[in-house]
Amino acid sequence: MNLFQRCLLPIVGIFCHLTIFAQTFIYEGRVVDDKDVPMETVSVSFLRENKSICQFAITDADGKFQI
Fold first, then answer.
1. Count of beta carbons in the 10 Å neighbourhood of residue 42
2. Cβ(13)–Cβ(53) under 8 Å?
3. Which of 37, 42, 38 is nearest to 57 (CA)?
4. Cα(38)–Cα(31) distance, rounded to whole angstroms?
C-alpha cells in the first residue's frame, strides 16, 4: 500500500463508523383546542436550552405536525 492508501482507509473507516451510528428521530403530534377540534397552521417548535429554535413545523388541516 502506498502512503495515500494508508492515510485514506482510516479516514473512510471513521466516516463509515459515524454514519452507522447516526440516529434520526421523527416527532409527530396533533394540536387540538379544548373542544378537541384540530388547529390548522399552528407553529410547533423545538427549542434548545438557550431558548433558540432548533426545529419547527406548521400543523396541517387535521392539526398534525411532523418534525
1. 15
2. no
3. 42
4. 6
